[in-house]
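Chapter summary example: a protein plus magnesium ion.
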Amino acid sequence: MNESKENPFTPGAGLKPPYLGGRDAVIDKMFRRSLDRTLQGCPSPKDIVIYGPRGVGKTCLISVVEDTLKSMHETQPTRIKNRIRVVPLTAGDLRSEADIEIQLISLFGQSFWKKFIPEKAEINLLPLSVLYERKTTPFSQVREEFAKRSQRTPVVITIDEAHTLNPEIFTAISNHSAMIRKAGGALTVIFSGKPHLLYMASDSGASFGDRFEKLDIALLDAKATIDVIRIPFSKHGIDVDEEVLTNIANDTQGYPHFAQIWGERLWEQCRKTGRSRIRSSDYTGAFDEVREERKLLYGSRYRLWKGRDEALLQRINERLRALNTLPSETGVKSIIKEELIGQGRDADTFDEVFDKMIESDYVWQPQGQDAMSFSLPSFVSHIAEIGSQA
Ligand SMILES: Nc1ncnc2c1ncn2[C@@H]1O[C@H](COP(=O)(O)OP(=O)(O)OP(=O)(O)O)[C@@H](O)[C@H]1O
Ligand SMILES: [Mg+2]
């Protein structure tokens, strides 16, 4: 292999991978259920909520969708008449109602905000530093004007890390979006975040079921994991032995972050050997380093469980692992209560423990099933390993 080639794999938060595996079906759903109508300049029925455990690929999925949307005007001129305005935001950009209003007002540029922002307000062209002062005109007028303009220039706003939004802000964004669509606007907001985005949203009072297309992002299947490794290598003229691909699919258990770590390490192996084929010996050569990286990652999740909580997690893990299928949320909460009582603790704190389970990517609830699932099967084995060493 040519030494100067840069490693294409991207093991890191939010980095776009060289090949996005296994997400065609979910991208297709995003278009069918909402984006297609918005792109035609029509109001779509719903905003989109994407949720899944940490590192499963929410951020890079929305980056890929953003890129697709930005280029559609050129790549699919028969399907898309007008350029689409894509606005990538994160929860940090939206801390107050005024932030939302500023984002909506500044989106269509000077001719738009001049209508709504008083002359005396100082305006810096960076939308985030617009000094906005409420005019006496009600915000509904901004929404109506927004609706009109978006019919010509459809708007897609993405909000990553949306689980960290204040629930009131989440509701306010969703209300503005619904009102703009009601006025005929072509706007889709894509919220993405960790699984408790769902819990937060249902607590926020928005009529959740009707307003959002909820799409879960789960682990990859073996074929997609193999593609994530095989395709980028083959683009550089490097073959990967079937046995290595199968081993990686088994080892990562569908976690895309680990697949990127494997890709990066195998690339290094390949650089060392100078060969254009990856075989078992390369896999074995990279194995310890991959394990080391994985331990670091689990460590950061496990550290959320300290003292009595660590013992509690160990007990719960033992019980859940013994089951063929995990119970529903209510069932998991009953187990937590029993174990809290077993530890002589207040059983009423079960909700906090449950939240921590979600937060630390121990369990989550994929869409359309009552039973909960382990977020990351190999993390579960890691917990058990620590337990057996104690
Ligand atoms: N479908 C995929 N195909 C290939 N690589 C992927 C895929 N999804 C994610 N990755 C890789 O996995 C890693 C984590 O992805 P990403 O940061 O998008 O996850 P996330 O769900 O947003 O995580 P977090 O919850 O921490 O924000 C990155 O290295 C990314 O390149
Ligand atoms: Mg992310």
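Key point: The beta strands are 47-51, 85-90, 155-160, 187-193, 212-216, 239-240, 277-278, 363-364, 373-374.
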